[in-house]
Amino acid sequence: MSVRVSKKLAIGIDIGGTNSVFGFVDHRGNISYRGAISTKRYKDINEYLNALAEAIEPLIEQVGGRDHIQGIGIGAPNGNYYNGAIEYAPNLPWKGFIPLADLVQSKLGIPAALTNDANAAAVGEMTYGSAIGMKHFIMITLGTGVGSGIVIDGKVVYGHDGFAGELGHTITIPGGRKHWSTGAEGSLETYASATGVRLTALEFLSKFPDKNSLLRNYNPEEIDSKVIYDCAVEGDELANNVFDYTGKVLGLALANFVMFSSPEAVVLFGGLMKAGDLITKPTKEAMEKHLLPIFQNKVKLLKSELKESDAAILGASALVWELK
Amino acid sequence: MSVRVSKKLAIGIDIGGTNSVFGFVDHRGNISYRGAISTKRYKDINEYLNALAEAIEPLIEQVGGRDHIQGIGIGAPNGNYYNGAIEYAPNLPWKGFIPLADLVQSKLGIPAALTNDANAAAVGEMTYGSAIGMKHFIMITLGTGVGSGIVIDGKVVYGHDGFAGELGHTITIPGGRKHWSTGAEGSLETYASATGVRLTALEFLSKFPDKNSLLRNYNPEEIDSKVIYDCAVEGDELANNVFDYTGKVLGLALANFVMFSSPEAVVLFGGLMKAGDLITKPTKEAMEKHLLPIFQNKVKLLKSELKESDAAILGASALVWELK
Questions:
Q1: Interface test with B, best of A138, A249, A254, A261 (most B CBs within 10 A)
Q2: Which of A89, B4, B175, B297 has the fewest CB atoms within 10 Å, measured from its CB?
């Protein structure tokens, strides 16, 4: 891993539906310069590239010019590592097939690589976070949705077409809750995301109408994973049951993932992890329960060590150290 | 793949609970010499090794001596590729940790490698069968149980500890049928194996007591996957429903596996595949139904091209071409 001692910097760009954030990162994961531009304002990809170059180029000068930059890593929804393209991302302003890594590389004159955000998070965790030195782990991001990045033999699994690792869409409860966007029934994301936790709470409230709960002090539209967490911490039983249930479903799914690739660890990341033990304890219990004995008490369930606000930039930047 | 043009032979040994079969295989998968010894007769591993050497050594002389042998590949239940050991195999006469690859290598003076039978089948398929040239595929063996071997980037996935790829034990129907040996509820093997097909038939017969079926002409203990197949081919509705249901469960599981590693193909192998379209058609339909659109109509569902009687030997022998 001689690249890890590079004194050059990597630029990490995380493209979200609203904004694109970027940072200049050294090989230890320290972010020096940061910036952001709007994503959604630029309906035309060339205008977006112009805005990006305008924001980044002065900083490149600041650090001593292009020679001091190892490369650019980009994390983007529907990003395909193999061709460096964003393919049909529903939540971005640019439609169809956008060969963004090539476009950025031409525009800025610096080698660029791209992957989806969850894979970038896995590379970030392996490079700077709680998976340093691990050859086999699975990263699960528990945010509005559920994302995943799988590492086997020290490499992110991209599969035949670049789209491997859609674990949030695996069916955990066949015939279960219908996904708001894919229409699939019982996929992990419908339970183990912030959105899923909210739906579970609403379901429990209507299923047990006689059960007291602090959650009944809120309008249904106010109930989100933060409110449920606050109520759970206050000792509210129904709110606690919501996290228990979420952990049960997540742990079952994790057991299945473990029996696929036998990782050293599963690293959990994202907003839902603010619930701490409320979510990790039932998750761990359910995972162990559903594992074959040969896998039991072997697999670490870890919390990401990356600061959430930095993780997307770090993950994207980490792609650079893998560039040949 | 320069090793593929070797003129040397590989010895493949497949260790089953009853017998161990072996063959001398060229790089194209032609088996020249074959043999077998009892497994269960030798409670002591050293006696087993003596018997194996006695059976194999004359054949080695026959082909011109050790210089003509590239190596020995062994497929065994609970075989761990990393350390070449059989670890706590419940159905073999030798208990505990048996470093069989080392023992065979010392005994015969030829390099040896070992893996579990399902992983060996995957290597065999990649080397001689329907997955030649594929870098990403999943092999599922549908026999008495359900085994699996996963190939990513042209390599079998062994995971952190050597035990990756226990897909038959992933939970497909949470809270479902209890596994006869592991006790897990709803694991794939309880539905998609020959054993599972039999259980589904018995379940349907008692669940729909008024439904006519040719299967009612048999005693329950006579009903096995072969009988159910024969009745299904005769047009028996209940028997056909059994295969439909099996395919639905298997297809759901396959969709989940595809969303994990995005393979080019899933290769199906084993006794249950004798049912042909009766099993593959509903499997394919269910798989496509549960896949995210980006994976739909991309993944081939293939039948193994290895002759069932040869596959275990071929798979084990194929390990040899991977030996460094």
A1: A261
A2: B297
Best of B134, B163, B257, B259 to mutate (most A CBs within 10 Å, chain A): B259
Cα of A315 to nearest chain B Cα, Å: 20
Domain boundaries, position A234 = 132-304
What ipTM does this complex have? 0.93
Q: In this predicted structure, what is the pLDDT of residue B6?
A: 61
B207 is written with which tokens? 């669940």
Please give the average per-residue pLDDT across A127-137, as a whole number.
95
Q: Is B296 on the interface with A (CB under 8 A)?
A: no
DSSP letters, A198-251, are HHHHHHHHHHSTTS--GGGGS-GGG--HHHHHHHHHTT-HHHHHHHHHHHHHHH
Asked whether the beta carbons of B123 and B154 are under 8 A apart, the reply is no
Is the minimum CB–CB distance between A174 and chain B shorter than 8 Å?
Answer: yes
From A153, A159, A166, residue closest to B136, measured CB to CB: A159
Asked whether residue A10 falls in the same domain as residue A29, the answer is yes
CATH code of the domain covering residue B155: 3.30.420.40
Residue A1 contacts B where some CB pair is shorter than 8 Å = no
The domain tally of chain B equals 2
Residue A83 near chain B (CB below 8 Å) = no
Sign of the alpha-carbon dihedral angle for A230, A234, A237, A243: positive
Q: What is the mean pLDDT of residues B83-96?
A: 91
From the centroid of its chain, how far is CA A247?
Answer: 18
Round to whole Å and give the CA distance between A161 and A135.
22
A41 with A174, same domain: the answer is: no
pLDDT of residue B1: 43
Please give the Cα distance from B167 to B151 (Å, whole number). 13
A256 vs chain B: nearest CA distance in angstroms?
5
The string of DSSP codes covering B158-185 is: -TTTS----GGGSBSSTT-SBPTTT--B
A262 in contact with B, Cβ within 8 Å: yes
Q: For residue range B262-280, what is the model confidence (pLDDT) as tens digits?
A: 999 999 999 999 999 999 9
Residues of B in contact with A294 (CB under 8 A): 87, 163, 166
Residue type at A157 in one-letter notation: V
CA-nearest of B154, B138, B151 to B253 is B138
Residues B203 and B67 in one domain: no
pTM, to two decimals: 0.93
Instruction: Answer whether B170 sits within 8 Å of A259, measured CB to CB.
Output: yes
